[in-house]
Amino acid sequence: MGGKVFQRNFKAVMPRVVKGEGIYLYDEEGKRYLDGCSGALISNLGHGVPEIIDAITEQLKTIEFAHTSRWRSAALEEAAEEVASIAPEGLDYVWFVSGGSEAVESAIKLARQYFVERDGVSTSKALVVARWNSYHGSTIGTMAVGGSIPRRRIYSPLFKEYPKIVAHYCYRCPFGKKYPQCGITCAHQLEDIIKNIGSQYISAFIAEPMVGSAIGALVPPDEYWPIVREICDRYDILLIADEVMTGFGRTGANFCVNHWNVIPDIIATAKGMAAGYIPTGGIIIRNEIAETVRNGSGAFVHGHTYNGNPVSGAATAAVIRYMKKHDLVTNARLQGEKLGRGLKEIEASNPIVGDVRGRGLMWGVELVMDKESKKPFPKSKGAAALAMKECLDRGIVIYPGGGMVDGIDGDNFLIGPPLVITAEQVDELLNKLEEGLTATAEKLL
After folding, report:
1. DSSP strands (E only) in 59-163
2. How far is CA 445 from the centre of its chain?
């Protein structure tokens, strides 16, 4: 009996992909699909970019692996220079890993070690406060801080729970308030939980600047991130921005926190860092934190075999140079404005599109049974999965999610095409999406 792939979903019927070119994917039947979600908002440059492939190939010819406990590499040092050149001011140190879950794990562990280095091993600062309706990774540690209930429910007996506050879910405000009269209660809840627990026990607060797959491109009120930054400063707590999905130009800025001129202490990032060409992630660290470790014990008590891989370094440097050369951050902003206008038009005309939100080339669509009451479809309907199928049939790929209303019901999907998309291709995306959602509504209502 031959080997078999342990499928992510044995019940799903999926085409076999055979080629990627630009913003398009092709299956074995020759059908073309517009990659409307960049895989999982990772293929920021599109598929088959020669410059990135050449950079990786040349690095493989030189050295494919060098363990960071014994070697430095020029590729990694060049990558760190490129990352720092687009990072917020004062974040010049980069720790490279293989993906987003590793990045978040690294950020959490560094937050703890920083306080140990600064205050001594007896320090009690260890807890990380996070939010419900968040996704920070799929390891046991990152699931413990994450708040995406459908993803974590069966594994919750395996991990130590971390304290959480609510997300800035304005469409379904958990406090029953309306912006801006709400006073940004969701942000100030951070201070409430810090007072309840005691800041002496908390090392960090972690959040996605725009919530990704857990709710679908949830954009915070403009006051939100400045408020949490001030609270973290006041209580001596590190602010970790999970930019695994939002970093490297996705939202029309180098990093999403730039929209609010907030500088976090640590940025966890991945996905667009190497744009899907090689598994890559990292944390970008405020200088004072890195130098506290360097001048203290001198070593981060952490590591993975593939962290700091030179091939990842070559890919990262090449991706950032390509982004700069083609001004893709500006393109993400401009095409994102056009995409947003088109999505709002679909919202106005389609009876099951309850909310459209986003920024740059990261947009979320929430599906509802009734627009006026915002009543969600029951889980049994599989509304987001149906939307994905109808769109796939029409040659566009979207990224579905759900369970954000009460941990069970709720349907959303992400739209996040490669940052190289043109205005004409945005029109193509919108036309295919409208057709797919029209068919979805007809089947659901």
Report:
1. 91-97, 127-131
2. 32
